[in-house]
Specification:
about 220 residues, alpha+beta, about 20% helix, about 25% strand
Length: about 220
């Protein structure tokens, strides 16, 4: 009996460590203003940065991680089959996410004669827009200018992109050598032109995992 209890505790520790690592990887809602929710009329709110479990990481080639929806459970953006959700580098998304309870969700649906519902995009500031489609759950809206379904919360998802906010924080650390140094991008112990070069290389790209100049 004692062995079984120890075994359960060890499994729990492994699970918690695994999920904690995935949580660290996400780069949604860089300004901590709640820009992490999409909305489906038939399924309610979908959280791209859940407080428990893994969130979503947006890359220049694809999206990885999981979205949490209270009414339908976890949605995997990078399932092994169908290739997951891809990003063409300009912010046009395509491919399929998978929900165990709802099936496939298409991030680039084509609706003849309805240009307002045509796929999901990410603009130069990291803002999601457009519609995803699930055959079993209907439309999911990634952005709205007004409250949805009589709720105060708006449908709004934003990812971290390297831009002027990062440059402003970088300037604040210029030539400093005292810890902490989030702008020391090459781990040299000081903030200099080499770090600025790294910032320039990433300009307007999705923030790398663990981006130190982010939130």
């Amino acid at each position: 009996m004692r062995y079984m209890r120890i075994s359960r505790v060890l499994r729990l520790v492994v699970i918690l460590v695994f999920w904690a690592g995935l949580v660290f990887a996400e780069n949604i809602d860089p300004n901590n203003d709640g820009s992490q929710y999409a909305y489906g009329e038939n399924v309610g709110w979908l959280n791209f940065e859940p407080s428990q479990g893994p969130g979503v990481t947006v890359g220049d080639a694809n999206l990885t991680g999981y979205v949490w929806a209270e009414n339908i459970g976890w949605i995997n953006l990078s399932p092994a089959s169908y290739g997951g959700v891809a990003n063409d580098g300009t912010g046009q998304l395509s491919g399929y996410a998978w929900g165990q309870n709802v099936g496939w969700i298409n991030f680039n649906p084509q609706v003849a004669g309805d240009p307002t519902r045509y796929g999901v995009t990410i603009d130069g500031d990291g803002n999601f827009d457009g519609w995803a489609w699930g055959e079993n759950i209907g439309w999911i809206h990634l952005r709205s200018a007004a409250p949805v379904a009589y709720k105060v919360q708006t449908s709004w998802v934003t990812s971290c992109k390297v831009g002027f906010d990062d440059l402003g924080r970088f300037v604040g650390y210029w030539l400093q050598s005292a810890e902490p140094l989030p702008a020391d991008l090459d781990d040299s112990g000081t903030v200099d032109f080499k770090d600025y070069g790294r910032l320039a290389e990433l300009w307007l790209e999705q923030c790398p995992v663990g981006w130190p100049l982010g939130k």
